[in-house]
Design brief:
The complex is a heterodimer. Chain A is mainly β. Chain A has no helices and eleven strands. The N and C termini of chain A lie far apart (36 Å). In chain B, strands 2, 5, 6, 10, 11 and 12 form a six-stranded mixed sheet that branches. Chain B has a four-stranded antiparallel sheet with strand order 3-9-8-7, with no helix packed on it. Classes of the chains: A mainly beta, B mainly beta.
Chain lengths: 111, 112
């Protein structure tokens, strides 16, 4: 059982480049989330989805876009990367029991 | 809005010492409360949870009690091991919103 899988695990971007982070879950969960983790700031919610075809903004949505075209996938896009987006990104999914399952993280560096 | 405040780390202990990591929250309604643990290089995983006042969550020797009167959910373990080295996050799920709010995390380290 794979759980939550994030790709890629590491990436280095130049300022202004774009990229998409993919999150896939195989637990048939309705809810999916993207967080960023920065030193001393915990996890901050970027965007989330409460079901296929829906998305909503979290605490820090600026500079990011998301899509949930299929229930099992939640994509996070950076259209024009900035050094301030250097972070570790975590995807999570949650079922009705309120336990969140996290991926292993994507370490993104923007130079 | 809802928020979670954790004690700043790192917490540095000797093996077999008693651990307390403080967590307080502000929330409208009656949130569920959680402790997550992040081992080096990994994602977060659920350690324990409590869904209503006076509930005690427990797992792997860790415990936390949902205290509505003090809006707290402190994590405790009677005898920590080096294998407990990790970052611990307190979180709340605001009354059915399914939007987790996390604290800043507290790192547990051990004296050499």
């Amino acid at each position: 059982n794979a759980g939550v899988t994030q790709t890629p695990k590491f990436r280095v971007l130049k300022t202004g480049q774009s990229m998409t982070l993919l999150c896939a879950q195989d637990m048939n969960h309705e809810y999916m989330y993207w967080y960023r983790q920065d030193p001393g700031m915990g996890l901050r919610l970027i965007h989330y989805s409460v079901g296929e075809g829906t998305t909503a903004k979290g605490e820090v949505p600026d500079g990011y876009n998301v899509s949930r075209l299929k229930k099992q996938n939640f994509l996070l896009g950076l259209e024009s990367a900035a050094p301030s987006q250097t972070s570790v990104y975590f995807c999570a999914s949650m079922g009705r029991a309120s336990e969140a399952f996290f991926g292993q993280g994507t370490r993104l560096t923007v130079v | 809005g809802d928020s979670v405040t954790q004690m700043e780390g790192p917490v540095t202990l000797s093996e077999e010492a008693f651990l307390t990591i403080n967590c307080t929250y502000t929330a409208t309604g009656y949130p569920s409360l959680f402790w997550y643990v992040q081992y080096p290089g990994e994602g977060l995983q659920l350690l324990l949870k409590a869904t209503k006042a006076d509930d005690k969550g427990s797992n792997k020797g860790f415990e936390a009690t949902y205290r509505k009167e003090t809006t707290s959910f402190h994590l405790e373990k009677g005898s920590v091991q080096v294998s407990d080295s990790a970052v611990y996050f307190c979180a709340l799920d605001g009354a059915g919103t399914y939007k987790y709010i996390f604290g800043t995390g507290t790192r547990l380290k051990f004296l050499a």
